[in-house]
Amino acid sequence: MKQSEHSLTARLDLDVSTNYLLYLPEGYEGRGDWPLIVFLHGSGERGDDVTLVLKQGLPRLLEEGLQVPAVVVSPQCPEGQLWTRQLFAVKALVDQIANDYRVDKRRIVVTGLSLGGAGACELVSLYPEAFAALAPICGPWTRLFVTDDSARLPTWVFHGDADPVVPIDESHKLIEEIEAKGGEPRLTIYPGVGHNSWDLAYGDPELRSRVVEQRCQM
């Protein structure tokens, strides 16, 4: 018997949950239009102890005293999972933070390192209209998540050219894929730097200033 063609339309109701860290900038109460930075961590910070997220990247720098003129939310991915399975929860969290805090919904940006770099790219591929910009750092498989809509987002990619964990070619392919779909991404390569290119990226005042200046274009 031959196969026949069919289609399915269904509505799914999901219960989602996530642990997260929240940073409010100095002077938070004085205005009502703060940018929101969504940070996705790497594989080493997965688990059910949210303080692990403080080990690397932007949350660590904030804990050490770095000041950023934005609200920053940093969810935690459970042990053994990829961000793929958590993206519905992340989007629900972003929506809640944007509604409950003094956030300008046109100025929500996503960044992540390593595994979180891939998660950041996948998140904006699912919800390109919700975000103003993307800044993935040394993420694997990122080229797989580029869509026509996500390619239009201002994107700044970072990678060390001596990365033994995620080869720099991953970011070159991401740039090529975005450009092929009409985007104009920016790539920063750190010569001689290994997998930890995020300390340099998040420590760069230009990245922080450009991120908080972006606004949704869709």
Fold and architecture overview:
The structure is a single chain. The protein is α/β, with parallel strands linked by helices and 218 residues long. The chain has one domain (20-213): 3-Layer(aba) Sandwich (Rossmann fold), CATH 3.40.50. The protein has six helices and seven strands. The protein has a five-stranded mixed β-sheet with strand order 1-3-2-4-5, with helices on both faces. Strands 6-7 form a two-stranded parallel sheet. Strand 4, helix 3 (115-126) and strand 5 form a beta-alpha-beta unit. The chain is globular and about 70 Å long. The chain starts with 19 loop residues before the first strand and ends in a 5-residue tail after the last helix.
